[in-house]
Amino acid sequence: MENKNVILAIVLSAAILIGWTFLQAHFFPAPAPKPQQTQEQQPQQQQQQAQQAAQDTGRKVVSREEALKESPRVAIDTPRLSGSIALKGARLDDLVLKGYRETADPSSPNVVLLSPRNSKDAYFANLYWTADSSETDVPTGDTLWQADGTTLSPDKPVTLTWDNGHGLAFTRKFEIDSNYMFTVTDTVANSGSQSVELAPTGRVIRYGTPANASQTYVLHEGPIGVYDGSLKEEKYKSARSQAEEPENNGKFVYPNSTGGWMGISDKYWLVSQIPPQDETLTGSIFYDPKGDFYQVDFAAAKRQVPAGGSVTRQQHLFAGAKVVNMLDEYSDRLGIPLFDRAVDFGWFFFLTKPLFKILDYIFRFVGNFGVAILCLTVLVKAVMFPLANKSYRSMSKMKILGPKMKELKEKHGEDRAKLNQEMMALYKREKVNPAAGCLPIVVQIPVFYALYKVIYTTIEMRHAPFFGWIHDLSAPDPTSVLNLFGLIPWDYHVLLAIPVIGGLLHFLSIGVWPLIMGFTMWLQMRLNPTPPDPVQARIFALMPIIFTFMLAPFSAGLVIYWAWNNTLSIAQQRLIMWRMGVKP
């Protein structure tokens, strides 16, 4: 009875985490690894599927290198980006992120963000002018623009021009800062005798569904935007489902928005059109099953281009890494609403983002995110110290009362009502609160969840090293008991695709840090009073084992946090017990 609330809190915490892991694995699963033979065939199958989709939409899929040669280009060279703009269509369709690589290996290739339309993984952004009259020639995806320069860089803008030969001259000026923000200024000059109505339109188009896109509710990847001050997120799956609905022509339509932004978000990257924030527009999300592409776009209000006059319009386009402080700076400076929400901090962003800010601030001093996590843990423990102190004192008193409680059980063992009454009277006389032990655990659940989101979603944690074998805090501990933590040089991952054996190997694939975490949890629970009920005692004994297996696939940074938190709790609890004269 005296430990019932403590055990209940622990069991509920475990049930929440285990239940969520179960739901994620069975109802929102990530794509399962395929057998070796299928993996070897997969590139050829993807290529055939891409070629079939391309034939349906007039695309001819070629290699990325060949696709880049299909149009004259203006090079892009900044501290963070390299790539080019296609003069055919004035598309931004070639971007490589200089500061980020595919894996934690420093020799791995840089991340390719955008690729041309005829490449297999085509992904690009462009701007159009649309006209109601078919007699008005406007630039299209096949229009060849002329450039006044060869390279776009932070100190060298590039201006593209095209004349329709019937009185309309189009000018598009590209500028870029030292990070990931493009500024695009469009001007249309009308030398004709009649006014013309044109409407600006911006699009982000992606062919195919990314192979590693999240299929769970833990993280949003796919179309995203802010329309009329409200964040809208759609999964790739929901966009495909919407394509089958006749209403709104298979589109998600967000009309009557003033300003906002819209694009496609990956776990760490974002490509987004950012219209002027005083512009009235309609946004939409669309999937074409025939061409197998996703399209996120906006259509702004029509502009009157008077005869002998001109119209100028300036907007922004973001294409790069979702660095939190950078998004905040753009949001404040350019007035972009909820731009920081491109980082999926979850429903509890009001807790998750401040926690990240604190972690990032500590990192600036210590220079290592793993050390920053250790410091953050100390800070969290300091904030919770009064509550934890009260809890540990109460648990120590309960351990002192162990003999008296045993006597009561022997005396009133057959009368449960009388036993509970006498135990509550004993608690009252000794000023012990049996529920106090569960409070630190309950309070730490939101912190644990928030830190999980920070480590899992922020690019700052991507490939962030700790010490020793931990080269990426956002990934699970790479060591495993299956290869004696690297002592046996064999790759067991090829067996993970086998249904029964693979599941067992996943279960046994436990690294060093999860084992350390389980051991510290076992030590901490050894300091607690042993429940008199044998069933409760067995539950207590099993909890470290359950949590060890449960947390093994989680990010190493999260496991390190839990192990260090347990260690600090052991030190605090042991000190209190020593002061109260209680033997552990």
How would you explain this protein's 3D organization?
With 584 residues, the chain is of the alpha+beta class. Helices cover 39% and strands 24% of the residues. It is built from 15 helices and 20 strands. A nine-stranded antiparallel beta sheet has the order 6-8-9-10-20-16-15-12-13, with no helix packed on it. Strands 5, 11, 14, 17, 18 and 19 form a six-stranded antiparallel beta sheet that branches. The longest helix is centred in the last third of the chain and has 25 residues. It is elongated, with a radius of gyration of 30 Å.
Low-confidence stretches: 1-12, 17-56
Helix amount: 25-40%
Count of individual helical segments? 15
End-to-end Cα distance: 21 Å
CA radius of gyration: 30 Å
Main sheet, how many strands, which sense, barrel? 9 strands, antiparallel
Residue fraction in strands: 15-25%
Question: Structural class, please?
Answer: alpha+beta
For the residues shown, what is the average pLDDT? 81
Morphology call: elongated
SS elements, strand count: 20
Strand arrangement within the widest β-sheet reads 6-8-9-10-20-16-15-12-13
